[in-house]
UniProtKB/TrEMBL annotation:
This is FXL18 protein. One of its GO terms (biological process) is SCF-dependent proteasomal ubiquitin-dependent protein catabolic process. Residues 14-61 form the F-box domain. Signal peptide: none annotated. InterPro entries: F-box-like_dom_sf, F-box_dom, FBXL18_F-box, FBXL18_LRR, LRR_dom_sf. It comes from the Eukaryota. It holds the Pfam family LRR_FBXL18.
Length: 706
């Protein structure tokens, strides 16, 4: 009785959640998925029943990464609060059957609707949009079989009022664009393959009956992102043809992201000339062939630019300063800048310059001073070598950008000049050729804490200082300038990789340890760091960066052996918030010890391993899937046989698909000739966000869509 009385006394002195004010409770509840709020939490007590239906919680419903939601939950959710929903995001809900869309008709007051990645037929789309008279923003996919003639007059009336449209095309089509006569924002994603599954070449010509002309007169934002392929280029030209005839007067953002070569034509030249005469832009991105060798930038006019991308252009630093920054004028409005693959952007001229020559620090200094409010900066895929001048190192200049939230740098840009010149590349795998006591070869030891690591090398290094100055950085990418993934888009796997830059040879464990200063780091990418000996810096990151959600590691250290495996396993034990893990490393052994360490990542949702000649342990994978209940994506492209891969994939699907409706499993030999056919069936959300390697910093303007 005394024990019971003491416990009751402690409870009475404790804090009761229901005693908080409604404002605090609403703030807490805003972090709970809407399906849980409506279907579970509100049934606990009367107070929560009222709060869970507050307009601040039901106004916007986000289902895009609620991997546990199923058709029945969506149906019940729409029944209970459908009339209260004004914004509904179901992007990437690929696992929901197309009939789920029928329940959206209950949301009569919808203003914004995102169905990208959902299965929607022409008839279902027509029926749904016919009831959504208040809709102003729409995102959909256009798949093979889409027929605009099946859209009813009521549906077209709704589309005529839509001002924002995001359309992902998997077949040559205008989609619903011709019906949207009031468009102000148009986002187009071209994912059309050049060949059908049967191997036939596809045409870029639109289907019969799709000759309607889009209406661009009110357009303010035009964005097009093309996947590799000739057909995508042909179809986007049809969309641009109307713009070349008459450029919208209110156009202030014009962005086209096209990989490879996308030649300029007479129509596109007329469009750019018209833009130079009639509009003032706030955001610009063009294919490299449209900028290289032309005086376009000299004639374009800018208002208060917030985004520039000159990715893969041969733009020199001199042109960048003169034509874009206008000799160092105030560009405080610029928040996002992508210079990825722009190899001469920090040099005064590019005519006689080699890509490996030192940068001109005065150009970078002008950039930093003029664009002092940059939040997203991408300088990857280029050799940015600093000179020996004191105080002019790239890292020292970038440390002035105190507002940076995301940063992408080449590996060779972060090394101390003296270290790269004086210190020869380390070869950790060499055994001393001496007589006497035998040297034991095995798992290497490494310092377990930040202090030991700092004593070895680096608190005085320029990269350490840079990391210390960017305390609020959330995304960091350090990628070798010659790195290329073994899994490129729509092509066979690459068998050989280019060697790292000579300047990058000294970058290793100590530089990785410096990253652990970033307390608020959420996403980290490290690729082609040749001097990783033990991976000790990874442990420091695991201990210090407790907000880390996304981790991508590729080709670290020597290629013949995974030298950082022990440190990686120690790191993973501390990554409680990690949701996405991508590993790309030859000869990676995905065995019992690795998966046991990975099981500590209780929040993990997506795993991708790419490994030439890599091996896996089927029993260990099955045990991992059973222990980590949140995992809904498992992609492994290894060196195992097709039989082993298929058997494991089938076992995972058979054992866990019923409990995890969003489960997506692809296990396949990396060098198999049918790899591209397998990849085309991967949901676009996973393919674009984790499976394919790419730099994502400043890839798009911030807040382009939801």
């Amino acid at each position: 009785q005394e024990v019971v009385s003491e416990e009751s006394e402690e409870e009475s002195n404790g804090v009761n959640l229901m005693e908080f004010s409604d404002e605090i409770l609403l703030h807490i509840l805003s972090y709970v998925p809407c399906t849980d709020l409506v279907l579970n939490v509100r049934r606990t007590c009367r107070k929560l029943a009222t709060l869970c239906l507050d307009k601040s919680l039901t106004h916007t419903v986000l289902l895009q990464k609620d991997y546990k939601v199923n058709k029945d939950k969506v149906k019940q959710l729409m029944r209970d609060i459908g009339k209260e929903i004004y914004q509904l995001n179901m992007a990437g809900c690929y696992w929901l059957p197309s009939s789920t869309i029928d329940h959206v008709t209950r949301c009569k007051n919808l203003v914004k609707l995102n169905l990208s990645g959902c299965h929607v037929t022409s008839l279902r789309l027509s029926k749904m949009l016919s009831t959504l008279q208040h809709l102003r923003s729409l995102a959909i996919d256009v798949n093979p079989g889409f027929d605009a003639s099946q859209l009813s007059s009521e549906c077209k009336a709704t589309l005529s009022r839509v001002s924002e449209l995001k359309q992902t095309l998997y077949t040559p089509s205008y989609g619903v664009v011709p019906c949207c006569t009031s468009l102000e924002k148009l986002l187009l994603y071209f994912e059309i393959l050049d060949r059908s599954r049967e191997g036939f070449m596809l045409s870029g010509q639109l289907m019969v009956g799709e000759s309607n002309v889009p209406h661009y007169q009110n357009l303010r934002i035009f964005y097009a992102r093309l996947a590799p392929g000739y057909v995508n280029q042909e179809v986007v030209r049809l969309y641009l043809a109307v713009l070349s005839d008459r450029t919208p007067e209110n156009l202030h953002a014009f962005l086209i992201s096209a990989p490879g070569s996308f030649a300029e034509t007479g129509a596109t030249k007329n469009l750019l000339d018209s833009m130079a005469r009639n509009v003032r832009l706030d955001a610009l991105q063009l294919p490299k062939a449209w900028i290289n060798g032309s005086g376009l930038l000299q004639h374009l006019k800018f208002n208060n630019p917030f985004y520039f991308s000159f990715s893969r252009c041969t733009l020199s630093g001199g042109h960048l300063i003169q034509r874009v920054i206008n000799g160092g004028r105030d560009l405080k409005s610029l928040t996002s800048l992508n210079l990825s693959g722009c190899v001469h952007c920090l040099a005064p001229e590019s005519l006689f310059r080699k890509a490996e020559d030192d940068i001109d620090s005065s150009i970078l200094e002008s950039l930093v001073v003029s664009c002092c409010n940059l939040r997203h900066l991408n300088l990857s895929a280029a050799h940015h070598h600093s000179s020996e001048s004191i105080g002019n190192h790239l890292c020292q200049l970038l440390s002035r950008l105190k507002h940076l939230l995301s940063l992408a740098l080449p590996v060779c840009s972060i090394t101390d000049v003296a270290a790269s010149v004086e210190k020869p590349p380390t070869t950790p795998n060499l055994v001393p050729q001496t007589f006497g006591r035998k040297v034991r070869i095995g798992i290497q030891t490494y310092p377990r804490n930040l202090g030991d690591q700092a004593n070895q090398k680096i608190e005085s290094s320029v990269f350490w200082a840079l990391m210390g100055s960017l305390r609020f950085l959330e995304t960091l990418e350090i990628i070798g300038s010659s790195f290329s993934s073994a899994m490129p888009r729509n092509e066979p796997a690459i068998r050989n990789s280019l060697p790292p830059c000579v300047r990058a040879q000294s970058v290793g464990d100590s530089e990785v340890a410096a990253i652990s200063q970033l307390t608020y780091l959420q996403s980290l990418t490290l690729a082609q760091l040749p001097n990783i000996l033990t991976g000790s810096g990874l442990v420091n990151i695991g201990l210090q960066c407790q907000h880390l959600r996304t981790l991508s590691l590729a080709n670290l250290g020597m290629m013949g052996k995974v030298v950082y495996m022990s440190a990686l396993m120690d790191m993973l034990k501390h990554c409680k918030c990690l949701r996405d893990l991508r590993l790309e490393q030859p000869y990676f052994c995905a065995g019992a010890q690795f998966f046991q360490a990975l099981s500590h990542c209780s929040s993990l949702q997506r795993l991708c391993i790419v490994s030439r000649s890599g091996t896996l342990q089927s029993d260990a994978v099955m045990s991992f899937m059973a222990n980590c209940l949140e995992v809904i994506m498992c992609h492994m492209f290894m060196g195992e046989s097709l039989t082993v891969c298929k058997n494991l994939q089938q076992s995972i699907v058979r054992s866990f698909q019923a409990e995890r409706p969003a489960l997506n499993v692809v296990i396949f030999p990396l060098l198999h000739e049918d790899l591209t056919e397998v990849i085309r069936d991967v949901p676009m959300r996973h393919l674009d966000e984790i499976t394919l390697f790419k730099s994502r910093v400043a890839e798009e303007p911030p807040n382009l869509w939801w």
